[in-house]
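Discussion board: Methods & Data

I've been asked by a reviewer to show the raw model output for two of the constructs in my manuscript, not just the figures. I'm not sure how much to include, so I'm pasting the format here to get opinions. Each protein appears as its amino acid sequence followed by a line of C-alpha cells. Is this the kind of thing reviewers expect to see in a supplement, or should I convert it first? Here is construct A:
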Amino acid sequence: IGSAGIVNFANALATRGLFASIEGLGIQNNDVGGDGMRALSKAAIGGAMSKLVWLDVSDTPIGDDGFGSLVQAPAAGGLRNLRWIGASGNSIGDAGVGVLSTMSRDAFSHKLQGIQGIQGIQGIQGIDLSQNNIGDEGLCALAAGSGPLDALWMLNLSANAFELEPAGAGLRALAAALRGGGFRAKGHLKHIKPTA
C-alpha cells in the first residue's frame, strides 16, 4: 500500500466510521510515508480508531514528520486507548523523538492543571523505536521528557545512531533519568534495550 492508498484509507475511516471498534492495526512494511501518517493521525484526532490499542507502522518510512503527527494525536484527543506503538525502521531521528518528549511534557502539564479529557501519551506502555536514526540529542530530549511517560514498561532503542562505547551524552542522560525516577523506573519500566 502506498501513501495515496493510506490517505484514502484514512479518509474512509474519518468519513464512514469504518472499523470503529478496531483494537489493532498493522500496516508495517508499506510505503505509508509522512503524508499517510499525517492523514491517519488526522482521522484519529477526529475520532476514528478510538478503541485502537496497538499500532504497528514499522518500516513505513514515516520519518520525523510522520512520527511527530502520530505522537501529537493523543494530546489532541485521538487514540486515547493506544498502549503500544511499533515504529522501527522509519528514519525517525532526534527531531521525531524531540516531539515525543515535548508532547509528553505538554500533555502532562495540561493534566496537572486539571483539564479533563487530555491524557496525552500517559497510557503508552511500549514503544519500539529500533533501527532508526536517533542520536545522543534525541536520547537527551527523551530523558528530559521521560517523567510523564508513566505507564511505559518497554522502550526498544536498539540499532540507532547514539554512542554506545563509550557511553555518549544520550545514554548518560537516559541513565540519569532512570536513576532519578524517570519513566517511574522503580515501578513500571521492565525492559529498555539501547544496544546496537
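Construct B, same format:
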Amino acid sequence: ATPRWGEVSVSSDPCSEIYPGEAPADQPEVAAIQRHVLALGDRMAVFIDAHTYSQMLLSPWGCARAEISEISPGVATHAAITSRRYTFDAAEHATEHDAALRAAHGALEAVHGTRYTYGPAASTIYPTAGDSTDWAYAAAKITHSYGIEGRDRGSYGFVAPPSEIRPSGEEQLAALLALAEHVRDPSGGGSPSPSP
C-alpha cells in the first residue's frame, strides 16, 4: 500500500507536474520498480529517490496526518500547498533518519559548500501524497528510505543547466557514500568514506 496516496499536493489535471496518475503505481515503470524493490527484500538497505530541485535531503514521512486548513481536491498548486498548515506524525525511525541525514548533509556540504536542508519531507519541503520514499519505508520496510532534491533552489526549476550537473553529482555522491557508511556503522567507528 502507498501511504495516503493522492490526498494532498496533487492535481487532477493530467498535464500538471503534480498529477499522480489514476492509481498508485499505475504506470508500468513505477510498477516494475516496486516489484524489483520488493523482490530484493531485506537485501536492500537504502532506498533513494533523487529529484531536482530545492537542495534538500528528505526522510519519511512525506504524508500529512491531518490538514489544519482546507484545500480543494484536484486544484492543488505548489503555492497553495506550501501556504497550508498540516500536522505530522514522526516516522518510527525518526531519530535514526536524523542521524543518517546529518552524516549525509555534512559530507554533501563539504564538497562545494552548497547549502542543503534536511528533515522529514512533510515538514521540510511540503506534504506529499504517496511518494516513493514513503512507499519504500512503509510497504517495502526499508528503514533508510530517503529523497534527495538536488540543485538549485528554484532559479532553473526542473531543468538544471549543464554547469550545475557535475557539482550536484559530486555533492550527492559524497552524501550517498556518507549515508552508506552510516548505515553500515551507525556508531561512526569505521573508516572514513572516500572523497568523490
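Answer (T.O., handling editor elsewhere):
This is acceptable in a supplement if you add a one-line summary per construct. For B, something like: The helical segments are 28-40, 78-82, 94-112, 121-124, 132-138, 162-184.
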